[in-house]
Design goal:
The chain has 3 domains: 323 residues, ABC transporter type 1, transmembrane domain (ABC transporter transmembrane region fold); 168 residues, 3-Layer(aba) Sandwich (Rossmann fold); 73 residues, Rossmann fold. 62% of the residues lie in helices and 11% in strands. The strands form 4 sheets. A 6-stranded mixed sheet has the order 8-11-12-5-13-14, sandwiched between helices. A hairpin with a 5-residue loop joins strand 1 and strand 2. Helix 5 runs antiparallel to helix 10. The structure holds adenosine-5'-triphosphate (ATP) and magnesium ion (MG).
Length: 604
């Protein structure tokens, strides 16, 4: 189930970051920003204040406010004043810690609120995406986007926004402060910037590359596991365990390698930055000593630390930043995918007023541009007609249903319902007038009752039982523990395939649609049940336009119109007798089946 052609996009850090910021709750975010700014300002003011104290303390007693000279000429320290000055410094740091905590709490809320919003949007987006887009992803990939990517963003977003904003603010604030305090020392610090940037960018970039590889492999791994888990019976049956383990091992090894490389590289950043920082220290001490500014040197040691902080921070969290932004970017590309568009001024038509006339005019369609399927289809179906569509596997029968339901859009021509182009109706209007029982039965986790009621929300319990009786499902439902309250598992695999079909038939019956589509609706039930359902269906199909797709030709023998399809096009039409007499493709199909073993059963 590997699907190719994933949407490609370059890694756009700033674009993604700006987009994240834009979507945050603005008032909370501004509050977070203000608290971070206070932290930065306090962090810078404290060394400046410290410098003043140090310079005063170290000056001679004429200008030193912490020393007093008594009448005898004895110099003594004014302890309360000195302790007071240092208490203020400690106060700075206490204040920084408290405000830092507050800003963390605020930013955690910002990101939690955003993740909540994101999850909701993701869910809604899936509904608005055309199937042709979703086809490009395996279920594993979609799952990984909806869970892993959003989780990655959720987990690290608050951390990251704090660090990034803090780092940027700190960098510029310290830079300005350093020049104000002592421009000569500031120049030394500035001289280290290119080195720091170089290290962060070069190492960060290559680590990022490895990380992207790792992310990609993770997606592949999710798909592989999903395939293996959901198809494990098949894997075992064909003794493919070894092959699938081999594939898994290969992928796992590649993941290990890229994970190691990416982490190793981002780990390298720290010691390298430390080294550059230390060179800066030495230079500041030497020049500071020459210009004889002890307080300046001390202040600059703190400044240099603060100045290195942004680089170290960004270096350390670069891998987290990458997870988050790689996830965000993949998520955004998904969120940006073109949606199914609805017509601007849809024609309103009530479900009761639909007559069920269908026409296909020069319809052309294919799933992908390079494979032809339906090239030119013309078809006229009158209200209440029962149309049987037959043809070999892959002929395009289900495709026809997909087009009628507008699961896929035609490339050319038009499909009309009651003379209205179906593109002029909303999908909701179109689909609500059609009842469907498909090849792949779809049931959700919940009671049988609710699964049937899905067809029409206001159906009473009695109506549900009635529909189930009509669908020949009542008997088996009654034998289940809890009867109609029996809870089906997510994929409905605690009942048989045939029973699932009966439930979906009951669902279609209860929705009382004007148009009924049965695509291999009874392919999994035995012939006798099928015949019983057939009788009920004949009743239901009265005054309803019905499309029946069936492989067992005996089930459609009575249909007035039989459409024979092959390679996406209609090759013959007529009733059973006419088609047999024509001795064409239908006759071939019929005879092949008649001579086969299945037909013996069909005839009983
Ligand atoms: N989602 C899809 N994306 C791409 N190709 C598809 C898709 N669904 C079907 N096809 C292709 O379109 C062709 C027609 O498929 P379709 O499902 O309509 O056949 P069918 O007549 O219903 O066959 P069956 O009797 O086996 O159900 C096939 O060649 C199939 O491979
Ligand atoms: Mg089909």
């Amino acid at each position: 189930m590997t699907k190719t052609q994933k949407p490609k996009k370059d890694y756009k850090f700033f674009a993604s970051f700006a987009r994240l910021l834009k979507q945050f709750n603005p008032s909370l975010f501004v509050l977070g920003f203000i608290t971070i700014s206070i932290v930065v300002v306090l962090s810078i003011l404290s060394p400046i204040y410290l410098r003043d104290i140090i310079n005063k303390v170290s000056s001679n007693f004429h200008t030193n406010p912490y020393l007093v000279v008594d009448g005898t000429g004895r110099v003594s320290v004014v302890w309360p004043k000195l302790i007071g000055a240092f208490t203020i410094i400690i106060g700075f740091y206490v204040g920084i810690s408290i405000i830092r905590m507050i800003s963390s709490v605020i930013l955690i809320r910002v990101s939690a609120a955003y993740t909540y919003k994101l999850r909701k949007e993701f869910r809604l987006k899936i509904d608005r995406l055309p199937l042709s887009y979703l086809d490009k992803f395996t279920h594993g990939e979609l799952l990984s986007r909806g869970t892993n990517d959003i989780d990655a963003i959720a987990e690290s977003l608050n951390h990251i926004i704090f660090e990034i904003i803090y780092a940027v603010l700190m960098f510029f604030s310290v830079l300005i402060a350093m020049f104000i305090v002592e421009w000569r020392l500031a120049l030394i610090a500035v001289a280290t910037i290119p080195l720091q940037f170089g290290i962060t960018i070069i190492i960060g970039k290559s680590s990022q590359k490895k990380y992207r590889a790792f992310q990609k492999k993770t997606g592949e791994m999710t798909s592989l596991l999903e395939e293996n888990i959901s198809g494990f019976e098949v894997v075992k049956l064909y003794s493919q365990e070894e092959k699938s383990i081999e594939k898994f091992d290969k992928l796992n090894k590649e993941m290990y390698k890229s994970n190691f490389q990416s982490n190793f590289l981002s780990m390298l950043i720290w010691p390298s930055l430390r080294f550059v920082g230390n060179i800066g220290f030495v230079a500041v001490c030497v020049v500071g000593g020459i210009i004889n500014d002890l307080g300046g040197i001390l202040a600059f040691i703190t400044f240099l630390n603060l100045f290195n902080e942004p680089f170290q921070m960004l270096g350390e969290i670069s891998s987290t930043i990458q997870t988050t932004f790689a996830g965000a970017e993949r998520l955004f590309s998904f969120m940006d995918a073109p949606e199914e568009t609805e017509t601007e001024n849809p024609i309103e038509i009530k479900k009761e007023d639909v007559t069920g006339k269908f026409s296909f005019e020069n319809v052309r369609f294919s799933y992908s541009p390079d494979t032809k399927l339906i090239t030119n289809m013309n078809l006229e179906i009158n209200p209440g007609d029962i149309v049987a569509i037959v043809g070999p596997t892959g002929a395009g029968k289900t495709t026809l249903v997909n087009l009628i339901m507008r699961f896929y859009e035609i490339n050319d021509g038009s499909i009309k319902l009651d003379n209205i182009d179906i593109r002029d109706l909303t999908r909701q209007t179109l689909r609500s007038s059609i009842g469907m029982v498909l090849q792949d039965t779809w049931l959700f986790e919940g009671s049988i009752k609710n699964n049937i009621r899905y067809g029409r929300n206001d159906a009473t319990d009695e109506e549900i039982v009635e529909a189930a009786k009509a669908a020949r499902a009542h008997h088996f439902i009654s034998t289940l523990p809890g009867g109609y309250d029996f809870v089906l598992t997510e994929n409905g695999d605690n009942i048989s395939q045939g029973q699932r079909q009966l439930i979906t038939i009951a669902r279609a019956i209860i929705s009382r649609p004007k148009i009924l589509i049965l695509d291999e609706a009874t392919s999994s039930v035995d012939t006798r049940t099928e015949q019983a359902i057939q009788e009920v269906m004949n009743e239901i199909m009265k005054d309803r336009t019905t499309f029946i797709i069936a492989h067992r030709l005996s089930t459609i023998k009575k249909a007035k119109n039989i459409i024979v399809m092959s390679h996406g096009d209609i090759v013959e039409t007529g009733n059973h007798q006419e088609l047999l007499e024509a001795n064409g493709f239908y006759a071939q199909l019929y005879n092949a089946q008649f001579l086969g073993t299945a037909s013996a059963l069909d005839e009983t």
